[in-house]
Structure formats: C-alpha cells, structure tokens
Amino acid sequence: MATNRTFTMIKPDAVANGHIGAILNDIIADGFRIVAMKYIQLTKKTAGDFYAVHKERPFYGELVNFMTSGPIVAAILEKDNAVEDFRKLIGATNPAEAAEGTIRNKYAKSIDANAVHGSDSNENAEIESNFFFSQFERF
Ligand code: UDP
C-alpha cells in the first residue's frame, strides 16, 4: 500500500455520543480522501488481536472491553503525508493534552475513551488497513 495512506477508527465513545458526522467532516475538511470505510462492532478476539502490541500494558483489558462496548467506524484515509498529518489532526492520546481544535480536544473525554485511532507509522497503517479491509473494499 502507498505510504500516503493511514488507518483510523472512530471509537465507541464518539459513535455513542453522536460525533460520527462531525469527525468525518473534520477529516474531509483537512484534505483526506476516504479510500475504504465500514461500520462494525469488534469482538473480544478482533479487538484483542488489533491491540496485541499493548498486551503487556496495564490498560490492555480495559482497552479491549471499551473497544468492544459498541460499534465503531473503521476507515482508510489518503492524503500526502497521511500518517503524520492525521496524528496532528487527532491530537495527543490524552485529550487533556490535545491541542485546541484537534479531534480528541473537541470530541474525547478521557485517555481511554479518546474518540479516534490513528496509525502511528506507515508500516502500522498498512498492517491495520489489511486487518480490516480486503483489496475489493478499497476505492
Ligand atoms: N490507552 C489507555 N490508557 C493509557 C494509554 C492508552 O486506555 O494510559 C488507550 C487509548 O485508547 C489509546 C490506545 O490505548 O488510544 C493506544 O495507546 P497509544 O499509546 O498507542 O496511543 P495512540 O497511538 O492511540 O495515541
């Protein structure tokens, strides 16, 4: 996959709080093109596998519980410098530290329920996109 793509999820808190439309609007307004998108609920297995890299961290169990607590929107996004620009658009992991105007600053309430996911490298963007989408689901 090209390195001008990233992977995102709108997490269960943002979906439950009615922010899907506003977040997609911010993403598109920032110049990202939607390559793929789906509305799904993760199982313990899929959420556990997706976050396997955090398995040893103290928040892993809570993270898996939270990510399976309701539906999410998963998407692949395209823009020059996508991974870095998207991390800038969403802001710091802890919304209390997220810059003014970022998605987490506007729509997240806590470090665990922080509204959105954004890949942290080109390599992970590709792995995460392949985890959710087949080649026939990308446009
Ligand atoms: N997380 C958490 N507690 C923490 C740190 C992280 O619940 O102390 C959750 C949070 O949902 C975060 C995810 O674990 O988005 C992955 O953590 P990471 O450090 O990779 O942050 P991100 O890349 O999402 O900003």
TrEMBL record:
<dbReference type="GO" id="GO:0005737">
    <property type="term" value="C:cytoplasm"/>
</dbReference>
<dbReference type="GO" id="GO:0006241">
    <property type="term" value="P:CTP biosynthetic process"/>
</dbReference>
<feature type="binding site">
    <location>
        <position position="87"/>
    </location>
    <ligand>
        <name>ATP</name>
    </ligand>
</feature>
<keyword id="KW-0808">Transferase</keyword>
<feature type="binding site">
    <location>
        <position position="93"/>
    </location>
    <ligand>
        <name>ATP</name>
    </ligand>
</feature>
<feature type="binding site">
    <location>
        <position position="104"/>
    </location>
    <ligand>
        <name>ATP</name>
    </ligand>
</feature>
<keyword id="KW-0547">Nucleotide-binding</keyword>
<feature type="domain" description="Nucleoside diphosphate kinase-like">
    <location>
        <begin position="3"/>
        <end position="137"/>
    </location>
</feature>
<comment type="similarity">
    <text>Belongs to the NDK family.</text>
</comment>
<keyword id="KW-0460">Magnesium</keyword>
<dbReference type="GO" id="GO:0046872">
    <property type="term" value="F:metal ion binding"/>
</dbReference>
<keyword id="KW-0479">Metal-binding</keyword>
<dbReference type="InterPro" id="IPR023005">
    <property type="entry name" value="Nucleoside_diP_kinase_AS"/>
</dbReference>
<feature type="binding site">
    <location>
        <position position="114"/>
    </location>
    <ligand>
        <name>ATP</name>
    </ligand>
</feature>
<keyword id="KW-0597">Phosphoprotein</keyword>
<dbReference type="GO" id="GO:0004550">
    <property type="term" value="F:nucleoside diphosphate kinase activity"/>
</dbReference>
<feature type="binding site">
    <location>
        <position position="11"/>
    </location>
    <ligand>
        <name>ATP</name>
    </ligand>
</feature>
<protein>
    <recommendedName>
        <fullName>Nucleoside diphosphate kinase</fullName>
        <ecNumber>2.7.4.6</ecNumber>
    </recommendedName>
</protein>
<keyword id="KW-0546">Nucleotide metabolism</keyword>
<dbReference type="GO" id="GO:0006183">
    <property type="term" value="P:GTP biosynthetic process"/>
</dbReference>
<dbReference type="Pfam" id="PF00334">
    <property type="entry name" value="NDK"/>
</dbReference>
<keyword id="KW-0067">ATP-binding</keyword>
<dbReference type="InterPro" id="IPR036850">
    <property type="entry name" value="NDK-like_dom_sf"/>
</dbReference>
<dbReference type="InterPro" id="IPR034907">
    <property type="entry name" value="NDK-like_dom"/>
</dbReference>
<comment type="function">
    <text>Major role in the synthesis of nucleoside triphosphates other than ATP. The ATP gamma phosphate is transferred to the NDP beta phosphate via a ping-pong mechanism, using a phosphorylated active-site intermediate.</text>
</comment>
<feature type="binding site">
    <location>
        <position position="59"/>
    </location>
    <ligand>
        <name>ATP</name>
    </ligand>
</feature>
<feature type="active site" description="Pros-phosphohistidine intermediate">
    <location>
        <position position="117"/>
    </location>
</feature>
<dbReference type="GO" id="GO:0005524">
    <property type="term" value="F:ATP binding"/>
</dbReference>
<keyword id="KW-0418">Kinase</keyword>
<dbReference type="GO" id="GO:0006228">
    <property type="term" value="P:UTP biosynthetic process"/>
</dbReference>
<comment type="subunit">
    <text>Homotetramer.</text>
</comment>
<keyword id="KW-0963">Cytoplasm</keyword>
<dbReference type="InterPro" id="IPR001564">
    <property type="entry name" value="Nucleoside_diP_kinase"/>
</dbReference>
